[in-house]
Backbone:
């Protein structure tokens, strides 16, 4: 049996509503800045927004949805976007698992989308896990394209397409890392050989067919919480910046190189990715939680602020 990983369960927060005429800014000292401080008291959440659809490995057509968090009554334009993917071993989890981080960032002025993506619905073989990772990657790309399409059409969300970030926890972090750093057939071949390349290309390639295909999906940076990449050599110096949080005693997704969740798939954790990124000159930061397990992020009192600080450093 595949052991289920600890789910990232964030506490749901209660929000107070305000009318359009009410001021939503907190009375903050003058030295606190938008995107680097909690300058909004309240947010709005648009739930179950459909961003696409696709077929699971088991052959079921499924709709893809997300929850979108924004500061209430915000009049700013050209706002940074953060797209997040939940954890759950690709067999469970839900977009509501990122409520706390999404709320925290929205109160600083970011637009945040927490997505659902296709999960595993066939026998959990190594090949199936590799396929479901790439399925989740193209689903996340469709979610990013939902917003770049919006900018080109209705412009409801007032996104700056040069300031889009992706991220996740565990399986969601694996998704975000492969979104950012797997870009060629040669890299796909390293993951699963020619058969795997054929599978991906038969499903629309690395762009996929989960929705909004005519629009771009470029991102500026990645937030990796307890994730891994199949091979650190996939990273190159021109690709998105990287911020990671990882515990050194993570037995589910190893901090260094190891067997991911007892699947037999060997991948490189954050302790391998960051020295390599540094050697390339790629902008990156790693928060190592000494003796931390897979869920170390849950007890990290400074991590939300540090994620926000990294994002702020990248949008200046």
Residues:
């Amino acid at each position: 049996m595949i052991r289920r990983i600890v789910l990232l369960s964030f506490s749901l927060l209660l929000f107070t509503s305000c009318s359009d005429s009410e001021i939503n800014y907190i009375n903050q000292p003058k030295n606190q800045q938008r995107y680097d401080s909690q300058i909004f008291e309240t947010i709005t959440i648009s739930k179950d927004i459909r961003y696409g659809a696709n077929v699971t490995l088991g052959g079921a057509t499924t709709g893809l949805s997300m929850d979108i968090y924004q500061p209430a009554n915000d009049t700013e334009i050209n706002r940074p976007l953060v797209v997040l993917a939940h954890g759950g071993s690709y067999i469970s989890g839900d977009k509501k698992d990122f409520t706390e981080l999404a709320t925290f960032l929205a109160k600083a002025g970011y637009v945040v989308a927490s997505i659902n993506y296709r999960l595993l619905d066939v026998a959990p073989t190594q090949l199936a896990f590799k396929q479901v990772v790439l399925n989740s990657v193209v689903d996340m790309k469709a979610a990013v394209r939902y917003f770049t399409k919006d900018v080109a059409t209705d412009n409801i969300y007032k996104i700056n397409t040069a300031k889009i970030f992706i991220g996740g926890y565990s399986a969601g972090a694996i998704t975000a890392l492969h979104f950012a750093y797997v870009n060629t057939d040669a890299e796909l071949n390293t993951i699963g050989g020619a058969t795997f390349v054929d599978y991906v290309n038969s499903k629309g390639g690395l762009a996929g067919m989960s929705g909004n295909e005519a629009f771009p999906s470029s991102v500026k940076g990645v937030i990796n919480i307890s994730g891994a990449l199949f091979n650190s050599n996939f990273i190159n110096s021109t690709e998105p910046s990287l911020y990671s949080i990882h515990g050194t005693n993570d037995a589910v997704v190893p901090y260094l190189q190891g067997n991911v969740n007892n699947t037999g798939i060997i991948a490189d954790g954050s302790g391998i990715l960051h020295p390599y990124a540094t050697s390339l000159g790629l902008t990156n930061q790693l928060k190592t939680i000494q003796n931390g397990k897979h869920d170390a992020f849950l007890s990290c009192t400074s991590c939300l602020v540090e994620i926000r600080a990294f994002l702020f450093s990248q949008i200046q």
About this structure: Confidence is low (pLDDT under 50) at residues 1-23. The domain at 45-314 is CATH 3.40.50.1820 (Rossmann fold). The helical segments are 99-106, 126-152, 171-181, 185-202, 270-280, 303-314.
